[in-house]
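User: Sequence in, structure out. Go.
Assistant: Echoing your sequence, followed by the structure tokens.
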Amino acid sequence: MRECEYRNDILEKWVNTSYVISMERIPNFNVVGKIEEKQKEFLLNGRKSLLYENHLANMEVDRKREIENNELPKTEEELQFINMSNEQTNELLRFSGVEPYDVPEGNFHKVKATIYKKYEPETTAGFFEAHYQMIMLNADFVPKNRLREALVIFHELLHMKSYLAYHVVAEDNGKGIMLHTSAYREGVDVKSSPKKALSGDDHDHFYGLNEAIVSHEEKRYLQKLLGASLFEKERQDLMSSETEPMKNILMKERRIPEDEFIAINLSEGYYLSIGYQAQRKVLNYICEQIAKDTNRSADDIHGEFLKSQITGKLVSLGKLVENSFGKGSFRRLGDMTEKGEDAMAVFDSLVKMREEKIGII
């Protein structure tokens, strides 16, 4: 929940009302709800500026100064990764019927872990913050790996280019009009209303599905990168006879598919693979079962989930799921969080609902 205070005649009519700012075709933003053109223009201009040089304009002064004073310059290779990710995500936008656009490199901020960990655990490599249209990268994330860096940028950028809607509530605090702004939708993820968020009753619905869809595309992008000359060394390392025994052990004990490994480093004792494995297991199962019922490929069904992630259209997706899994199955899918145990509980529920639907039990 973010708050910004304004003294503006345009905002006086907003007291005790709320609106949804919907970004259906980024960067051509839209405002959903009954709202005057002057109010709409006021909001749209503010949202559009977040994609360009003013994206930190409304940030808290101390935080903005801290980021600006501690930001590290991006390397030429990191800039290349940003350009590549813009190209790949634009392909996904076109596939979904949405106008492509590039996110400037200035919306990416690389900082040391001492700054990064104030906003996200330092054990993560990057995150997207919708309110400021900002992606923050952890410069000290270990292990260092070029392929992982390229995938983190892609992952967070796809989140950024997914459907985005803000909920805005205005109230007069006696000194001016206060706008309470919170993300309402991020991809398929549906968040609590500002009223609930302010009261502490805050939760996400479809958060796990949101990450599963993005990580599925990250996995596809991984294979594309491994086929590029830029990552020839990384590909050879993964295919080497030295790493084969460890790869086989990990595939058996951790149940990691061979095409999900990013790196296996024996000398430093680590491996990297695509995340949200449990959430993607749920998504893959759903797509496979729907494919059987519709005489389509599982890849086609994954495409339907991607379109919903980017366009925000959930109704048709919900019908697709419930036609194969029964009433209430889409809501149950929405219970999936980022936790692996939650994902597996949802998986078990959906298997049972599927069996009931097709008459096995």
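User: And one key feature?
Assistant: The longest helix spans residues 76-95.
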